[in-house]
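P.,

For your records, the input lines for the assembly:
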Amino acid sequence: MAALVEKAMSGERQALNRRLSHGGFDRAFRWASLASALIVLLVLAGIIASMIVGGWPAFREAGLFGFVTGSTWDINNDVYGAWPAIAGTLATALIALVIGVPISLGIAIFLTQLAPRWLKGPVASAVELLAAVPSIIYGMWGLFVFAPLVAAYLQTPLNRVVEGIPIVGTVLYSRVPSGTGIMTAGIILAIMIIPFVASITRDMLDQIPSVLRESAYGIGCTTWEVVRHVLVPQAGVSIIGAIMLGLGRALGETMAVTFVVGNANRLTALFDPGSTIASRIANEFNEALGLQLHALIALGCILFLVTFSVLIVARLLIARVKVH
Amino acid sequence: MKYRSIIAALGLAAAAFAAPASAQDVTGAGATFPFPVYAKWAEAYRAQGGARVNYQSIGSGGGIRQIRARTVAFGATDAPLKGEELAKDGLVQFPTVLGGVVPVINIPGVETRQLRLTGELVADIYRGEVKAWNDKRIAELNPGVTLPAANITPVYRSDGSGTTSIFTSYLAEVSPSWKEKLGSGTTVNWPIGQGGKGNEGVAATVKQVANSIGYVEYAYAKQNNIPYALLRNLDGQFVAPDDKTFAAAAANADWSAAPGFGISLTNQAGAEAWPITGATFILIHKEPKDVKAAAEAVRFFEWAYQNGDKMAEDLDYVPLPDAVVEQIRKQALSQIKVK
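Structure tokens returned:
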């Protein structure tokens, strides 16, 4: 039976090949798909080129080093420095990772190792639903609901505790307990990257052969020991890849951050208002003219380079795992 | 049969998309501040058989870029262009409606219209020179009002906006040190405080932060019942913002003092005049490439000057005085070569 089917199919395939190969259809198809792939590269190269060209006047005005390290952003005098925005971008992304990664790992380990069957489905779908919430919703929710909570239950009590303490006080004291600031943006970003990091990590943990886990349990390991010494080392590098993808999202997130970051051109303390590259572009692009426009494109260029390198590192790490 | 009906449906869909692209369509782009009234006018104009006017509120900067690139029939901006810029690009500029900016406050125990401020004080608050609400200079103006000994948090618009432009030009006009250090524009280099995105961002931040001060468009403050302060005008009177005080500011202005009606309406003389008043402007090429579209745009604004006052008032904008409209017809609209 099977042989018959195979024979029939191969006969059909031969007929098809005969019909198509004559007109060079194969070659045309190959060229067409190659062209589709090249379009992506062309678009990417076009974006990079136009950003460098667009940002060039700003880089030239202040010098590449001066633009990156300058901390004044004065539109009336056309003096532009990107440092507070760059630092704010890195700070919010770092906070997002510090908060989001442990929670994501917890979700992934719980879902793959510990969850009872009836709980697996609901938790997994809830995590995926988080990924489907548009970022403007996170922004509005962050501004109108979450920021007042941060002000009342985080900043105000914390202020009482840390006021006057050297270093700790400088970092954690908020001059204006308004609820918006670098920290709030970081927390919102953490919520936004959790679904990505958690679901990729879950997939990675799922791929580990169950024989490894079972033999570890078999020699008397506790659940913690299995997770710590068997699962995490096995999935190790690919978890880093997942974190990098989350980092990529946190660096570039615009709308949600713009609403809650406080939009001040400085980075003084964790709870104080600051700005990120993406929020600055979102705020000013509409009204920008002249050198300001070039400076914003130059900012975009820097963000592009940072995100791009993060994604490349992530790709390389994941690729290395697949080879092994 | 099946295919035929699909083709027919596709044809209908294509026709539906193609139909609006008739020659009379007018596209404009620019300032966000007048968007509600332009949209309302466009809707009413269309309903009366006029052309379809499509206005995209992409911001004044975008509006100026688009009209310079001639991709739209008219551009719109809150901050007027200067005479030489108009001449360079061959643009005609004229105002459409007036609006005001109001200082909104959140001081526990102080109600709306209770607090009295001056422009110099507002400038010094935003520069961090006046730090607390019980500052001597504020207390002197407000006998009988209990002001807390709390630090003031100034809140500003983080996005570039015409509202900030009007607000900062007022501060630059009344405070020499503001003019010297910060100047005016769609955003300035704010030394202290924090930024909110859009009117709603500023309003939300002011609402959340006790002892803060912010500034929003009058319509937004009115429609959302946000407490605001009185301001002292050039004549030394403390006035509240409303349509009458905005109109009073425009009544005494000398509109021919600047090319393209680009005068500043802030800090105008007049006992009733609200000091932070501004107009919003339209830009059209003197020699448009798409003559038909420009002609339609001119016809649309002619119609709006004639029939749009009530609609503007309903949305808390203030129509221009008749004399100014007459001046616009004679000096601006007539310059556009649409024949």
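Two observations worth noting. The CA atoms of residues 111 and 119 of chain A lie 8 Å apart. Strands of chain A lie at 73-74, 79-80.

Regards
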